[in-house]
Amino acid sequence: MEKVEIVEVGPRDGLQNIPGFVPTETKIALIHAIADSGVKRMEIGSFVSPKAIPQMQDMDLVVQGLRPMPNIVKMALVPNSKGARRAFSHGITDLEMVISMTDGHNNSNVGRPTSESLADLEYLLLEVDPDSKLNLRIGLATSFHCPFEGLTPETKTLSNIEKMLKFRNGLEFALADTTGMATPQAVKSLAQQAIKHFGNDATFIFHGHDTSGFGIANILAGLEAGLRSFDTAVAGLGGCPYAPGASGNIPSEDVVYLLHRMGMDTGIDLEKLMQASDIAASIPTAIEASHVRKMPRETALSLAKVA
Ligand code: COA
Ligand code: ZN
Q: Which residues are marked as active site?
């Protein structure tokens, strides 16, 4: 059976945009429920400025409240080397540094142009992590479309990947459709080009949003291009507060349901994932967008049973 990795980003991307503060215990319960479903890698939150993303102001408490989860890679998003140091202080060494491919979004999201984020990344790799303890992935935000600059040329994303691989080989890159405006053709093309040019030196994952309703089609396009890892969020929560007009991530349960029905193996127990989705969907003011949640649950579970 072909294996496909689902990286759960609900506790980070899913929650960061919710207006009301989600209590620390709810965040912890959500992370534990996701871990129980068999997900192997999860973004548990972000070490960002509490002024920029008030929802993540309790990140230190969330990390302290987690039970040991030896079978899961806990990732956190960081916007700069300061965030990486905060994560290190909690023993979290699987990090995603977010760098937008367009200055417009990078300025809005992390307060500096892309070139300054690249310089900070180089500093992080050389000065903060000289022993390469860090497992770093770069979230290539606005790889397809920017809310301030429109469509992103493919060459821009590819040349930034090339620059970053000069800092360190073996990085993982998330091709991120931050605004959810990418077409399946664009996803397939960028993924193919990235794999063709840098597939020996880097790994790639697709991070999508479902704003245009192309989310599942974009996952299929990524699969066709050869990607085998995808970011998704339970109940389809999510969105970047600095990307106006973007809606939620592609719902994890919809993707797992589809992949299982296609005879692929995610290692995830859909019934348990739905329990995590129930927690996410019940958060007041959360906008859920799952299709599988609308199906009779027994039917969905029985159709998606992995043989
Ligand atoms: N975690 C916590 N605090 C941080 C921080 C981090 N990673 N990085 C900087 N800060 C603090 C600084 O120490 C400073 O604190 P002070 O006011 O008490 O002195 C304050 O934030 C401002 O620092 P500055 O360097 O001027 O940053 P800024 O105000 O321009 O904000 C970011 C820059 C990157 C910290 C902020 O834009 C941010 O956190 N963005 C994240 C956006 C995000 O998560 N988007 C969604 C995911 S794509
Ligand atoms: Zn996102």
A: 240
